[in-house]
């Protein structure tokens, strides 16, 4: 119980979860594998700060940040998508 | 707030935030049978368990004891990977609570909601997910009525024994021999793969058989995917070795001369002739009555991947009639499976399905054992047209093949496997 409380208290504030946010995040996890099972050459996103994920996506989308697949993929996601999936990943442990 | 109330609130918030115990999951119950343990079916089985919080009873019916991946299988043909590198077992899926049954599905009774297996058993389902991959239209090649010839001119388009057979045929080909790849008209599984295969064969020959030729006989009028990247690879990495012939449709083979018979050109003799036949949805789709497009593919409701014709039966992956510019790829099968799994969990709980699904595709092709390039696309459901449409200005291809993309390609292969099979 104490462990749960600590875990809950340390979680960043998140928007109300929805299955749509989960589904958006699931479009990422084919490459950004959850649970540390994949190669870290493609960064795992679980538990990362939502602001960091969202700002990286926006920087890829605008062309400000260079990359290979990510600038192209990020252009397929809206601001609302980016915020939702970023918050979903941030809430994962 | 009392500490008990605070604990309950915190626990609930945590559970909700984690997303695996959303409302629908708690209410979903029932029996889901998934047929086919490839990138589509295995992903569906795994995510049905995950997103129902273990509440759905999920059975995966898969003929083979291990899955052999088509992605990266051209690298086995080129010799830089071994079969073990592209082979995965089903133990992790079983550990996730998926009941894995090694049998072949032979029939579906959509009224009784049962699947008949070749071991004589019958499985009852509330919803059925078919991810049968492809079967070959061997009757398009008259000589293939002799079944032995299907091994003499291997397709290696379902990874497995023919992958190794084709590898061995390249290794034992005479010095200065000709390896020909015959490509059918689109659509077929994995549009860039024939051209990647030409690269991989050429990479091998450059080291082991430098006077050998790689001849691409394409029924299509041009390279179907990553065109500039493949043409650049053939010119710069394998000058004089790879020859590309568009509009060269194979109509038959001549086993006596080991030649390709072509629709508009003279026969072409080849030492090793890789005939990729035209394809259709795997046979169980036909048995289930869900093949609705040209006698080949299965049309689905793209919000749920349920057949437009047979209620309670969903179809994924290479077997479907795809949405515009949606490729028949492993990555896309994995993404479709997640849309389908989310919809099935919602439907089994009596909840509405996500009205705005998104699916992305990333596909790497290896131009050699150290250089690769990608193609990407993002597809969003369009409620007006009731299909996925590619997002304009999103997606694209690599500016050039390079080693960084090869490292990402290898990571992609490992990671999609982990996401799919656990």
Give a brief outline of the structure.
Helices cover 51% and strands 0% of the residues of chain A.
Walk across the major sheet of chain B and give the strand order: 5-2-1-9-21
Looking at CATH, the homologous superfamily of the domain at 141-278 in chain B is: FAD/NAD(P)-binding domain
Alpha carbon gyration radius of chain B: 23 Å
CATH topological fold name of the domain at 141-278 in chain B: FAD/NAD(P)-binding domain
- How many helices of chain A? The count is 5
Share in helix of chain B: 25-40%
In CATH terms, what is the architecture of the domain at 141-278 in chain B?
A: 3-Layer(bba) Sandwich
Give the number of DSSP strands of chain A: 0
**Quaternary status:** heterodimer
Descriptive report:
The complex is a heterodimer of chains A (93) and B (422). Chain A has 93 residues and is an all-alpha fold. Chain A has a domain at 19-26 and 46-93: Cytochrome c-like domain (Cytochrome Bc1 Complex, Chain D, domain 2, Orthogonal Bundle), CATH 1.10.760.10. Helices cover 51% and strands 0% of the residues of chain A. Chain A is built from 5 helices and no strands. Chain A has helices at residues 2-10, 19-26, 50-62, 70-74, 79-90. The longest helix of chain A is centred in the middle third of the chain and has 13 residues, at 50-62. In chain B, α3 (39-51) links the parallel β1 (30-35) and β2. Chain B is built from 12 helices and 25 strands. Chain B is α/β, with parallel strands linked by helices. The model of chain B is unreliable at 1-21 (pLDDT under 50). The two termini of chain B are 41 Å apart. In chain B, α3 (39-51) runs parallel beside α11 (330-348) and α3 crosses α12. Chain B is 31% helix and 25% strand. Chain B has a domain at 141-278: 3-Layer(bba) Sandwich (FAD/NAD(P)-binding domain). Chain B is globular and about 65 Å long. Classes of the chains: A mainly alpha (93), B alpha/beta (422).
